[in-house]
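User: Show me sequence and structure for the first protein, then do the same for the second.

Assistant: Starting with the first protein.
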Amino acid sequence: MGNHPHRLKGLALACALLTLGGCQTLSSKQSLDSYNQQFANGQYREAADFALKSGGINEQGESKNLLWSLQAGTALSASGEFEFSTRVFDHAENLMKDEDTESLGRKGLEKVAANLVNNNLNRYSPTVYDGVMVNTYKALNNIFLQDMQNARIEFNRAADRQRRAEETFKSRIAEQKEKMAEAEEQANTNDGQPAPVDFDKSRKASENTIYENFPELKEWQAYPDFVNPYTDYLHGLYFMLASADREDYGKARQSLRRVAGMSSANSAVKTDLMVIDNLRRGKWSKGRLNPAVWVIFENGEGPMIDETLIPLPLFLLNDQVEYSQIALPRLQTRSQAYPYLEVYAGGKSQGKTEHLASMDRVIQTEFKREFPLKVTEAIASTLTKAFIQYQARKEGGLAGSLLAGVYQAATTRADTRSWTSLPKEVQVVRLRKPADGKLQLKAPGLAAPVEVELPDSQFTLIYVRATTPGSTPTYQIAGFDA
């Protein structure tokens, strides 16, 4: 029998893991659907309560569930609970650090679970944009709390995350290569007999089949890798409005120039870049600038992840081809709430919000970079399962074959978890502050205008959020003085 009984332990372990995780995965999806519905309806406080309960998040913001912490932090911020939101995001950031420094034993166990079952049994693995947006939202929370020093810290952290993103990605590539090598080694170890599956031939054919099923990857217009123009714009705007010295003007100019390269048609970006250039050169003084208002509009809902099942060809010993399914994540974009917001003062239009940044594109850019890694992981898992099935049929006859078939079908699942409460896109408009300090926000399809009273400050940031068509926008206001 050799090592055959030992190898069949893999099937038994996989079935045990499957039983343990199956109900949990289903329950998580149902909970996420409920949260998404509340958030889409603009019921941000209810969505926050749901996320806090689902993630077991206490009053200090502590939890062991990263994804629910991200969802709760967004909903708390949208409902105006900035301090609580920041506490939740603080602990979410700690969980991200734990993920980066997890023990070799934990990584090994998660690798086994991914290969034998699927990634849904493992902890949620954060994306680069998750980390960047955590720091971005913490910075916004601090701005609304008038805590400009901590806002500065968070914007610097967000910028640092973007700088370090390439290193993070390289380490993930190394991990995936290791996974594929281990799957190949297992497939080729067959007690001195030829391997039951031609690993290289199967892998190449599988990759070709997969990419034929994902034509959108070629069509996406990506941003420069790991750059988020929304974060960069807020970073530039903050260091212009809350500047302490000329060095801050330099930081603002650097960020705004980068955004201008990605959103060259945006009027607000052009004006801000002109202003910061003149401030930096000493031609203008911030205290003598005309009072101005910026309306930042987080519009619609960002992408969700669906599952796509693809039949893959596995080349067996006798060159016979057997088909085995593989499950991969696929981005599904959602709708914007309104085409734009139009700002009125004294009954006259002062301008419309213009496109600044597409979170769809930010997420697509990273998804496209990560996709080969997800393909590698999925193929490694499929080939591992194919080998287990081969042994099950060989050792267990009909019963083993049936069990192997159930195992293959039940464990072929893509990891569809993602931070679903991010916006689809961000728009901005810049205008002079009206003398009476009153604005109206209107939009095609919006039933009634939103009335806004401005604070007594030289510069004002109005942050608006609307999720679905017809929903009432919510807003928060922060003032800056020279």
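Switching to the second protein now.
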Amino acid sequence: MGNTKGNHLGEFEELTLLTVGALFDEAYGVAVMDEIASRTRRNVNISAVHEVLKRLEKKGFVQSRMGGATNERGGRRKRYFTLTFEGKTALDQSIGLRNELYNAIPKLTFNFSQ
């Protein structure tokens, strides 16, 4: 998949995709929300996380599977997400572009006097 407009990663999509990869086999909505909130020190809305996870699945960047029902969830099952090859490729492209741009900043730009 090329990085066309439809497959472009927004900032929150990128954070969510990175978090799904980092959580590996334990990436479900609340865990993703808690991890993003913890690492970014931002309030994160569970509805926004679920919406982004659905959008990432539609793009083919994550896939989901249902876990078993648990008593603490009142018999409801968790939907777990995992990174796909296409998702890893999208992250590689996004992070590669960020690194290229960062490395293109002239070194003298970083000579701040404090």
